Amino acid sequence: MRPRSLLLVLLLAALAAPSPAPAAPAEADRTDTTDVYETRRNHLLALPKYAWNALVHPIGRFTIWVEHEQVPARVLDLFTNEAETFGVFPYGALGGETGTAGGLTTFHTDLFGRGKGFSANLIGNRDNYKGAALYDDPGIGGGPWYWNASVEALRTGHENATINGELRGSGSLLQLEQRDARITLGRRSNYGETDGYEPEAVIELRLSHGFREFVADGPLSGGIPGLNEAINQLSVGASAAFDDRDFKAPTTTISHSLNYQFPGRVLLFADDHYYSLRDTAFPERGGLAGIEADYVVGSGDVRYIRYAAEFHRFFTLFYRDRILGIRVRLENAHPLGEDSLVPYSDMPALGGGQRLRGYRRGYFRNQGSLLLGAEYRYPIWDTWNAFLFWDEGQVFGRYGDLEAGRFEYSFGAGISVRTERAFLFGLRIARSEEEKALTGFSLEKEF
After folding, report:
1. Is 335:342 a contact under the CB 8 Å cutoff?
2. I need a labelling partner for 12 at 20 to 30 A (CA). Which of 25, 48, 236, 311 fits?
3. How far does Cα 174 stand from its chain's mean position?
4. Which residues pair with 391 in a beta bridge?
């Protein structure tokens, strides 16, 4: 064989033969490739990541500490009895209807050992006060009917009181004294063991009595209906609502045993099915639709009908727990007769932590209001979620006054905290034409 042919054969044999495994590199010679696709080696490009971690990490660490130390349970133990059916808590406020004030709130969830409920709160200072009390029978005879009775009282001359709204810039403020008593009788389609786990239809009838008296501490331009009058009024009304927020169809099987802690879910086994508690503080599907109306007659020229309709709907976007919520609310207080009036304090209002969030509470007020809203929600830690929102709304005297160009808008962002069963609190910051950065804190959730 020619030398050239022999060389070619040897080369081909060498290429075809399996190559021996290379010797393992020394620990110091290994290259860490975990950050090849990350930007943190370029600190300038990583600034958004650093900012996000700086915001979220302390929240996460605080949440872990709260859970580890069982802080909520310790607080309850401090202010409630052993069975947690009765408690007395300190109560305080900064700003709002009363201004800086302090008080107490109390509750009892098992009066007479029969499941009846009572709650009351009172907060005030030398000039202003606000209080309420509620007695509730959640199931007459254990059935679908329920009733409750409530009283509320308010006296305020504070500049941030809801009734002042746009009047803050007029150089004069209203001082309001208001009392209400109400009895409500209702029926719900879902009660008993699966209450809170299945969709629910509710109807209510109510009878109310109210007292209004508001005076101005200086001259006011424009008429204020009911100003400088003591008004007693009686109303009768009804409402109906259907709520299937976050309803999940019952199943006959689950992936883990019932004593397994499902993240963010509370399960119930009944009627050979597993039910999931509806998380109405962070619904991922379904919605809420409701209507209500009241006929009101009172001293002087008070005679009007008030009605409202509201619709919420929730959709999943991109991922299972990325939620888009939409909201529409229409409210009107319509005088019955040319000389009839609607007291200024009872007119529909926009502004505050629930309705048109970039404006202070009650900033806009008239005989009618229309509110549109959208909110994008996404979880950031366990039962913490962030949200972005856009609100638009306008008030009007008659429907003919509604115009597309008259909508006021606001937008912003916030964080809400909840348990697996209920909303706890929310923090937000909003912007509008009136407020560059209006911050707020909420202990209740309307949408």
Report:
1. yes
2. 25
3. 29
4. 373, 410
Q: What are the residue ranges of helices labelled H in 118-277?
A: none
Q: What is the C-alpha separation between 190 and 188, in angstroms, rounded?
A: 6
Burial code (b: 16+ CB inside 10 Å, e: under 16) for 332-370 equals bbebeeeebbbbbbbbbbbbbbbbbbbbbbbbbbbbbbb
Task: Give residue 217's pLDDT.
Answer: 78
Rounded distance between C-alpha atoms, residue 402 and residue 40, angstroms: 52
Note whether 435 and 359 are within 8 A (CB).
yes
What are 368's strand-pairing partners?
A: 332, 396
Q: Give 169's strand partners.
A: none
| 131 touches 122 (CB < 8 A) | yes
Distance, in Å, from the CA atom of 216 to the CA atom of 229, rounded to the nearest integer, reads: 11
Residue located via tokens 């110091």: 28
**pTM of the predicted structure, to 2 decimals:** 0.80
pLDDT given at position 263: 63
- Residues linked to residue 134 through DSSP beta bridges, in sequence order: 119, 150
Confirm if 68 and 382 have CB atoms less than 8 A apart: no
pLDDT surpassing 70 at residue 18: no
**CA-CA distance, 125 to 159, in Å (whole number)?**
15
- How does residue 118 score in pLDDT terms, banded at 50, 70 and 90? very high
How many residues does the structure list for the chain? 447
Report the C-alpha gap between 148 and 206 in whole angstroms: 10
Q: Any idea which residue has 């306008």 for tokens?
A: 394
